Amino acid sequence: MAPESLSPEGYARARRVLMRRDPVLGAAIKAIGPCLMAERQRKDHLTALAGSIVSQQLSTKAAATIFGRFRALFPDDASLSATDILVLEDAALRGVGLSGQKVRYMRDLCERIADGRLVLDEIESLDDEAVIARL
């Protein structure tokens, strides 16, 4: 079974445990500061995959800007659905900074979800190799 993602509280707990058990790592954690991975986690699998498509071959800053514009296309902060993305015109997706190829990747992903060829909820119980094969 694949490991579950950590909550912000889980990251804080892990930080405390690491600092207590390893003085060298503890000093590094104190110098660097808390882990910011919890803030970067996506709410759901589709949002995570959309973020991965957006960020391919881009700097972190450029990807964050484009992904922010992409998310702004949707009226609320709820989880995305494949249908939400599929109803958008290519021009709208290109307008937020997605390349033509990334628009095609996004549409292909959403079509597979919408027609049932890809069920994202199933991937939580799979190991990494099975997730890769599924995607």
Helical segment count: 9
Strand content range = under 5%
Describe the largest sheet.
Answer: none
- Overall mean pLDDT: 86
Radius of gyration from the alpha-carbon trace, in angstroms? 18 Å
Number of strand segments? 0
Low-confidence stretches: none
Describe the structure.
By secondary structure, the chain is mainly α. The protein is built from nine helices and no strands. The chain has helices spanning 8-21, 23-32, 37-40, 45-55, 60-71, 82-86, 90-95, 100-114, 128-134. The two termini are 17 Å apart. The mean pLDDT is 86.
Q: How would you briefly describe this protein structure?
A:
With 135 residues, the protein is an all-alpha fold. The chain contains nine helices and no strands. The longest helix is centred in the last third of the chain and has 15 residues.
What key phrases describe this protein's structure?
single chain; 135 residues; mainly alpha; 62% helix; globular
List the helices and strands and how they pair.
Elements: H1 8-21, H2 23-32, H3 37-40, H4 45-55, H5 60-71, H6 82-86, H7 90-95, H8 100-114, H9 128-134
Helix pairs in contact: 1-2, 4-5, 4-8
